[in-house]
Amino acid sequence: MRFIPNTESVRREMLAEIGVASFEELISAIPESVRFRGDLDIPGPLSESELLQEVSALSRRNGDFARLKPLVGAGAYRHYVPKAVGALLSREEFYTAYTPYQPELSQGTLQAVFEYQSFLARLTGMEAIIPSIYDGASAAAEAALMALRLSKKNRILVSSALHPHYRSTIETYAAPHRTELIEIPCREGLTDPVRLEELLGEETAAVIVQSPNFYGGIEPVAELAAAARNRSVLFIQVVAEALSLALLQAPGELEVDILAGEAQSLGMELDFGGPYNGFLGARKKYLRQLPGRIVGETEDRDGKRAFVMTARAREQDIRREKATSCICSNHGLNILASAVYLSLLGTEGLYRTALLNTRGAHYLEEKLAGSGKFERVFGFPFFNEFVLRSREPMVEVREKLLAGGFIPPLGLGSYLGDETLAGTALFAVTEILSRNDLDLVVELLAK
Asked: Going from the N-terminus, what domains does the chain have, and what CATH number goes with each?
């Protein structure tokens, strides 16, 4: 924030402009009993160099990724982002990239969207892709609204292993539609297929399942999707860790009807909790119910390569109240970041990065479970997150890890308010953690 110095004459001028004679008159509406009297307990004026030293000392009290490596994920994952991504994003022609209202003037923006859209189509196996939704949670909510429009029904079954933030966002979006959300219980950390079969009914619009789920478990998506399909119910898969798509079978191959994903893992740093960028995928026959826009490639009248809006349903256009949604913002820089990241890594690089994640996670899980200080909670297959129960108080686990230079895993009992998960922690491992880092974690926690 820019500092604006004010002289006494400037203060008098401002007070006169708003019609008061003094600062005391300005705050006269505040009761005397609650006004602060005296001087603030802060040091006196500092020189510029002294102030810089003071601020630098304060900043060193904050934790940062330079000295603390995260063991927590739960929907926000720290992956290594090549420096070329930031270098290309800093080019001035990308700074004002917004919604491409006029295709003839937005060819660069449209090309970036088209390329990223194509990458996502390859990764997910879905026939139609919308690459720019606010975040994964709102993408999941938009998928739910799509299912309501397509089915003309108002009941949605939601796995209890869905990220709680995604669940609450769906509830918010669906509330005006008086939608009935029914939770599918889990069995051993995965969506219970038996209970799913029992809950499927005539009024069911869709089934929503996250895989890998909130506990890190890889769901039997093909089996769950088949159960929904046999009852003519739409199946929606949620992917919060997009890097898993490089290793696991593509949702499109598992006959998923609608896919809602979060692309933060693909080239976006965790800066103060973000940024994020969601995406939606669907079968081609559901194209007209997708919110946002799809970019296509064509030729202009001179035979040159050109990019256009192939499909777009926005509230400002002629559809007005019949529009599918209010998704109008284009996350231009986030799309570009993911497009550059995927271009740099390529198919083989993305696969190897995903492999590093899953190998590291399984290595740490095996070492900690074998240390005698932790026990396994679930036996499901996982990608880069897993749950362990500590035999020691979680506060001691956190203190040991912080002292050793690691951000602790997420304590599930307190986070979810579930007493059955007391003493459990959700660990996340990405390629940021080397083998030496993982061995140090084991050493710290096995003491």
From this structure: 69-78+346-445 (3.90.1150.10), 83-342 (3.40.640.10)
Amino acid 99: pLDDT: 64
Contact call for residues 206 and 234 (beta carbons, < 8 A): yes
Let me know if 137 is exposed, middle or buried by CB neighbors in 10 A (0-12, 13-18, 19+): buried
Taking CA atoms, 379 is separated from 75, 223, 227, 438, in Å, by 21, 18, 23, 21
Number of Cβ within 10 Å of residue 215's Cβ equals: 23
Alpha-carbon span 18 to 181, nearest angstrom: 53
Cα–Cα nearest to 293, from 303, 306, 307: 307
pLDDT at 347: 95
| Structure tokens belonging to residue 98 | 């917004």
pLDDT under 50: residue ranges of the chain: 1, 315-316
